[in-house]
Amino acid sequence: MITARASYARIKTALTAIDKHDQLELLLIVAASAVLDRYGSAIEVIEKDGFKINARVFNVIEGGNLLGQAKTTGLGIIELSNVISGLAPDVVVTIADRYETMATAISAAYLNIPLVHIQGGEVSGNIDEKVRHAITKLADLHLVSTREAQERVIRMGEVPERVIVTGCPSIDLAKEVATSGQLDFDPYQKYGGVGASPEIKNGYLIVMQHPVTTEYQAARKQIEETLHAVYQSQKTTLWFWPNVDAGSDGTSNGIRAFREKHSINSMHFFKNMDPLDFLKTLKNCACLIGNSSVGLREAAYLGVPSINIGSRQHRRSRATNVIDVDYDRMAIKRALKKQLDHGAYPKSTLYGAGDAGAKIADLIASTEIQSSKFLTY
User: Fold this and answer.
1) Contact in structure between 61 and 244 (CB atoms under 8 Å)
2) How far apart are the first and last CA of the chain?
3) β-sheet with 115-118: strand ranges across
4) Per-residue CA distances from 72 to 59, 289, 359 (Å)
5) CA-CA distance, 159 to 377, in Å (whole number)?
6) Cβ-based neighbours of 32, under 8 Å, separated by 6 or more
7) What is the CA angle 236-237-240, rounded to 5?
8) Mapping DSSP to helix (H, G, I), strand (E, B) and coil, where does residue 290 land?
9) Model confidence at 64, in pLDDT bands (50, 70, 90)?
10) Most C-beta atoms within 10 A of its C-beta, which of 53, 86, 297, 364?
């Protein structure tokens, strides 16, 4: 079940391993923002990678606000219940903490279909954490990324034998890129986007900043602080568009207004990239700025300096590559100088060693999760 562009990168190697496994058959549902071009549709990338999409679900209610999120979740339950019932899988696999993922979990649970949850047990301090923990209580098998997450899921009352550390599948891709990850393509030519096409051979920044659902009314002010800090640095910057969460309009409108008011020759804006291409771009950047978990996961494995802004990730486990700052342009500028002076960090395996996909497929195949005993404790 893929519900967002980022979710595809996080689950791609597990999908590949499941698809190739001689005891498993992959049925792929793509839903929510993952099917919408406005948010960087993942459809083209998924199909290019050779996956067959068995169903597409359009359930996003526009508005960029809390009501839209709630209604999107409700519509998702209705639509996904129909699709899952029709496909009649033995197991439903879902990942992480999106509100669309909540709809998947509720649908599977009420259809009496065992649910496998990947990336449970993590904390971040916002609504995603509540959703993630709620999905944990609906799930039947928990394939977590870290030991800390495993301990937390067990403390939530889950059967220890059903809580297994696999690492994060996105680290599998990072491992592939770590050893042969030269930037062997022109991102402007391959992915289009908008803005200037500043030279990247002398180094560049990446920005990935999303709205925070519990602070969605401040989204525009928050993005403006980052815009000013990055603009004043005059560093070549590859900027990725925000996700669909409440406040996305504030973030997007802030970017558009800033572009109209300033002559920007150092920034280019993208909607999406193929997961491997994105990680190549990440590996070769000087610093990642924003509030995406990429800065704490993949960037840590690749040793990329990261500046984490605000509260969106404030309780999530992090390695030494991260500097935390508030939404303040001066604080961001100071952190950027420090990270540029520091350069690359040692590789961290906090979120896995790069073999999660194969572990996940083998566990699904070898665990008697299809048995009715998995629906009771």
Assistant:
1) no
2) 25
3) 92-95, 115-118, 141-144, 163-165
4) 6, 29, 32
5) 8
6) 3, 4, 57, 59, 60, 72, 76, 98, 100, 244
7) 165
8) strand
9) confident
10) 297
Q: Tell me how far apart the alpha carbons of residues 304 and 313 are, in angstroms, rounded to a whole number.
A: 17
> Dihedrals φ, ψ of 218, to 5°?
-100, 5
Which of 91, 101, 158 has the alpha carbon at shortest distance from 128?
101
Q: Which amino acid is at 25?
A: E
On whether the CB atoms of residues 288 and 277 are closer than 8 A, the answer is: no
The CB density around residue 66, as the number of other CB atoms within 10 Å, is 16
Q: List domains and CATH numbers for the chain.
A: 5-168+352-375 (3.40.50.2000), 175-342 (3.40.50.2000)
6 compared with 194, residue with greater pLDDT = 194
Enter the tokens of residue 377.
């404790």
Q: Which residue has the tokens 């059967």?
A: 159
Cβ-based neighbour number of residue 164 at 10 Å:
16
**Per mean pLDDT, which of 20-29, 39-48, 120-129, 236-245 is the most reliable?**
20-29
22 alpha-carbon distance from chain centroid: 28
